[in-house]
Amino acid sequence: MKIACVGGGPAGLYFSILMKRQDPSHDITVHERNPAGSTYGWGVTYWAALLDKLHEGDPESARAVRANSVRWSDGVAHIGGETTVHHGDEGFGIGRRLLLDLLAERARSLGVRIEYEHGITADRMPEADLVVACDGVNSALREAHAGHFGSDVTLGRNTYIWLGTTKVFDSFTFAFVETEHGWIWCYAYRFGEALSTCVVECSPETWTGLGLDRTGEADGLALLEKIFADLLDGHGLIGREHADGGAQWLNFRTLTNRAWHRGNLVLLGDAAHTTHYSIGAGTTLALEDAIALAGALGEERELSTALTRYEQERKSALLSVQSAARHSAQWYENLPRYVRLPAAQMFALLGQRHSPLLPYVPPQLYYRIDRAAGRLEALRRFKRWLGPRVARTVQARARR
Q: Does residue 243 surpass a pLDDT of 50?
């Protein structure tokens, strides 16, 4: 099969690896519009379950990813003047650029061609048996057939900016700071020996009140360094790396598509779906897409059957993740509802932000129910049963 992957992100590169391992005679080219070594973002996160899947698909690249990742097991939250710690699941971080380099090197070793600075548009489609659109949330190939794919984009209310810092965090760290214009907070985690990612978020009222909507990048970073001075311990914040332009304040775009394939064109990763960054699943979901697509193509003889199977499988798998991401984003959009609680309670509810029940129960009552549910299996089952039903009822009434 002749395959063209449009986009050189993790999903496209890993899909090319899996297909070459499946059948070395596949003719595969990855087309990336940016120069080699140019990427956006800082570090990405993932959990141990992904490593198991990567090892099953290609042990060599899985070992390389694991060897170049850092890990943590605790979550730390600084809320006002208090600090609280939660001992949780083991998490991993790796630089996005390093991840791409590792996957590209492995793909080339298997015979995949990677063509950098080679953008593909809908009117210049490559001749191939299969074209994989893995060109991100703004996918040009998807937009050329917008009516068929049925894309829907929802903008989040809060604004955020993706930054780096030389402050190395030993744990996944949250910091919530109250200003005269409202709360502003960040998520910070290390992804290498000397660098960490720092994602800053706030409400639009706080963003404009602090003047972040009208300051240049240097002044904006200086203000954020002052706000998060206790967290950063004298370290600076860094704007966008390895790409043109500075770091930008954005509203998160949640993308869904009614269809994921058209003829021999199929969507992969962020071109097919996005989930809010606060659940840290974007890269994992993109790689899982690649695994599912390669699996379907390996087991089905007809291309259309394989693409239909892939679409159905991934849509089903994403339902719970998309729900969790939606509730997570809403939790931060409603931060004042939780931030006045004692720090330990607030951090516990931060860990429960995926729950569909939480928005409809007074926070302190929910905290007590959750604590009790941890001890009583029957109450735990009732909580899982009740949450989706309450959410559906409230949403149905809101639509009337």
A: no
